[in-house]
């Protein structure tokens, strides 16, 4: 999760079944305003600015999770998306794809007839690995969005090449990665306090490739994959905790790969010790907003480019 360079940190390696395990709690977090919400909103706006959705033929959400980017795109642009545009919501986790199907079915059952409902009827949830987008054809897709996904694949350059292969000439690709995540630093501090008390060796936080944590690194990766007109920016992506104890409990029991490197080596009551320490660190280090919520800062890198 971190991009820092400690001694031989383990690589961030997460399987589709690991994401299956956390799909339900991830979807719940996403619906309550997770740190993903600002980057998703901005990425959709960037796509619309560089290549308006009224010319979209196929829109591809890579590593869609519970479908937050697809949902945001439909709710803000359904009235201009052409009536024959397909929206492919893809993820290698069956659990995530199944949640997108449930969201689509709920929308089709609850929305009034109109462009929002008809756009949802053209959403196709698909199990697909970002590193191999077959059977999608070359030069097929007009818009791609990949929010916090590609840096955590086994072979990110391969995933970028696949995005480049399926994107039409002139098509647009918007993606994000993490520059800084204070909450991960706080988790490391909490673990370093809790594990000696528990009497187990403190695990090392897995890291994703350092290149993805810098604007220059992401620019180079995109250019190497053949993309042009690369534009990058930073955006704040905070976690807002209205009630620290409840949020920390939910986070540490979510099965999210951001926490399982700690929780998988602990028993239930031992996780409570990490919870206690994390609550303490958050209260010590975080700003409190005017509503009394603690703010755990994070900074994302957003990129947009063309084929
Ligand atoms: C941090 S979540 C982001 C989900 C979603 N994009 C969002 O903004 O909420 C990462 C997602 O990437 C998916 N993922 C990770 N590696 C993948 C791969 N190789 N191919 C496809 N999806 C992948 C995971 O299953 C998970 O749903």
Automatic annotation (TrEMBL):
Pfam families: Methyltransf_11. Residues 60-174 form the Methyltransferase type domain. PANTHER family: 2-METHOXY-6-POLYPRENYL-1,4-BENZOQUINOL METHYLASE, MITOCHONDRIAL, METHYLTRANSFERASE. This is Methyltransferase type 11 domain-containing protein. It comes from Aureobasidium pullulans (Black yeast).
């Amino acid at each position: 999760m971190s991009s820092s360079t400690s001694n031989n940190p383990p690589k961030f390696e997460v399987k589709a079944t690991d994401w299956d395990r956390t799909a339900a709690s991830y979807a719940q977090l996403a619906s309550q305003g997770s740190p993903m919400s600002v980057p998703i909103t901005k990425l959709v706006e960037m796509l619309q600015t560089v290549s308006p959705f009224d010319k979209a033929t196929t829109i591809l959400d890579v590593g869609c999770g519970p479908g937050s980017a697809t949902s945001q795109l439909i709710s803000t642009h359904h009235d201009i998306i052409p009536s024959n545009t397909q929206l492919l919501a893809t993820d290698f986790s069956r659990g995530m794809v199944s949640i997108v199907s449930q969201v689509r079915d709920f929308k089709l059952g609850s929305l009034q007839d109109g462009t929002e409902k008809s756009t949802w009827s053209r959403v196709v949830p698909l199990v697909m690995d970002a590193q191999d987008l077959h059977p999608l054809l070359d030069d097929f897709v007009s818009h791609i969005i990949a929010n916090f996904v590609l840096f955590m694949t086994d072979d990110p350059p391969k995933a970028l090449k696949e995005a480049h292969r399926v994107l039409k000439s002139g098509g647009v690709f918007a993606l994000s990665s993490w520059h800084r995540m204070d909450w991960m630093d706080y988790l490391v501090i909490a673990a370093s306090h809790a594990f000696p008390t528990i009497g187990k060796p403190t695990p090392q936080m897995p890291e994703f490739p350092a290149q993805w944590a810098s604007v220059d690194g992401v620019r180079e990766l995109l250019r190497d994959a053949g993309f042009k007109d690369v534009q990058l920016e930073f955006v704040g992506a905070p976690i807002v905790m209205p009630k620290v104890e409840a949020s920390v409990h939910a986070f540490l029991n979510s099965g999210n790969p951001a926490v399982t490197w700690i929780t998988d080596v602990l028993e239930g009551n031992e996780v409570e010790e990490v919870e206690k320490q994390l609550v303490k660190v958050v209260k010590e280090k975080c700003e409190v907003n005017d509503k009394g919520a603690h703010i755990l800062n994070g900074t994302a890198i957003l990129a947009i480019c063309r084929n």
